[in-house]
Amino acid sequence: MRPLTCFIATSLDGYIAGPSGEIDWLFTDQDYGYTQFFARVDTVVMGRKTYDLCRTFGEYPYPDMPNYVWSRTRRGKDEYASFVSDDIAGLLKGFKQQEGKAIWLVGGSALVGEAIRHDLLDELIVSVHPLVLGDGVPLFPRGLPRTQFQFITAETFNTGLVQLTYRRTR
Prior knowledge:
Shape: globular
Radius of gyration: 15 Å
Strand content: 25-35%
Structural class: alpha/beta
């Protein structure tokens, strides 16, 4: 079974984006394990706001693999992604049963919440940036069930970023 992995950055106070969705606070001076992680992935799943943000980067970052975007407002496909509006849990379960590499749950918060709510998230890799945003988009939405993860590793970087890896215990 393919793992569903969330590789994501957060502030010390648990936000993945600022109040207006801004990510200008993210460190971009090093790789922070991204290349090694990305080599393990062959499918990308994200929420529509995350997708819209990715489209502002200039060159689209994941053009060579299937991209699925969970959206309540968009339908069909565009040049990079297929839009999914219903039963995201069923879609993720189906992906996990297919042959292939890991499925990357890129973000955002609502999608992470759905994966946890339906006990589909297998691995969580969180890059904690050493700053407090004070407000913004939380990594985990409120109202999720208690979910236990096992600590796997912590890696520290000279910038103060700490990358934590957890696996779901079932």
